[in-house]
Amino acid sequence: MKALVKAEAAPGLWLRDVPEPEAGPGEVKIRVLRTGICGTDLHVRAWDAWAASAVRTPVVLGHEIAGRVEAIGPGVDTVDVGDLVSVEGHIVCGRCRWCLAGRRQLCPNTVSVGIDRDGGYAEAVVVPATNVWRHRTPIDPDVAAIFDPFGNAVHSALAFDVLAEDVLITGAGPIGIMAASVVRHAGARNVVITDMSHERLALAESMGAVTRAVDVSTTSLPDVVAELGMVEGFDVGLEMSGAPAALRSMIAAMAHGGSIALLGLPSQSVEFDWDRVIHSMLTVKGIFGREMFETWYAMSVLVGAGLDISPVITHRFPYTEFEQAFDTAAGGHCGKVVIDWEVAS
Fold first, then answer.
1. What is the rounded CA–CA span in Å between residue 178 and residue 149?
2. Which of 47, 149, 242, 294 lies in the 20 to 30 Å Cα band around 179?
3. How far is the C-alpha of 344 from the C-alpha of 254, rounded, in Å?
4. Domain extents for the chain?
5. Buried b (16+ CB within 10 A) or exposed e, 203-222
6. Residue 135 is among the residues annotated as catalytic for this protein
7. What CATH homologous superfamily does 154-286 map to?
8. pTM greater than 0.90 (yes/no)
9. How far apart are CA 298 and CA 303, in angstroms?
């Protein structure tokens, strides 16, 4: 079968013929329809310092996966052949104190699909049945492929109560935009998203989820707060960018007793105003991945209730055009980029 392989400890990806995997006990073989390109994949393709320390080659990349169940291994009775499924890319041990307590997202023994074991940039992938999410109602495979990052958005957006609250989102990447749609759907009053990309701010506005899309290179956040008549500041902040300046501006804009969810990964240590955090009695919570599987259930409910995240997908490429797909995603002038494994150019 065809697969995108990180074949060498060097920049690049390679489209190779590799053996088809087979489902073992407790596993599911999935015929892949779509895979989404994640920022992690871009790091691995570029082979930066993080990738060189975290990835052992060769490995098939890809963890944002949608496909149909093609075969099930012994002991699997949770899915059927033909089911349309998405994949939770974090495989947990099931034995540690956090797994046994039902808090699998905290498992310190987590193995990542597409990093620690072969992933879904391929015509087929095998994963544990416990990592398969079956879609019980019709859904576009493109949308099913981005349930992984959608889960990050939902986990962050619903970390705190947003009903009738004013929400600030820093970072208008695909996850930030999806988070804006979630908090609006959940009843937030004002939803303000910030970035410096005109394309991404325009995409956020076009989805109808934000009160204001703010280019912070030209517009002051305090001016926006004043314009909206928000005397106290923001009640909830979702930091999606990893930019130190974004976090500092968020902390300065929060109301007393406000809550901040941190999803964006900074590339370096970040200094910020601890005095402001303490004296304003702010709550700061780190977010990584999704809650398994509470967030997945919430995602399906939200989509079933009419939340449309499909506009965040701006590009789709056949797998044979993977270089152009990755270049598009790396360029940042786009929303979500999806690779189609059903067609070749």
1. 9
2. 47
3. 49
4. 2-146+309-340, 154-286
5. bbbebebbbbbbebeeeebe
6. no
7. NAD(P)-binding Rossmann-like Domain (3.40.50.720)
8. yes
9. 9
Considering the candidates 40, 110, 211, 295, report the single residue annotated as catalytic. 40
Active-site annotation holds for 40? yes
23 contacts 71 by C-beta, under 8 angstroms = yes
Mean pLDDT by runs of 10 across the 345 residues of the chain is 97 97 98 97 94 95 98 97 98 97 95 97 98 96 98 98 98 97 97 96 95 96 94 96 95 97 89 93 96 96 96 97 97 95 86
Which among 43, 57, 185, 314 is annotated as catalytic? 43
Q: What is the pLDDT of residue 173?
A: 95
- The confidence score (pLDDT) of residue 290 equals 94
**Distance (Å, rounded) from C-alpha 115 to C-alpha 180?**
29
Query: What is the residue whose two structure tokens read 């059927």?
Result: 80
CATH class of 2-146+309-340: alpha beta
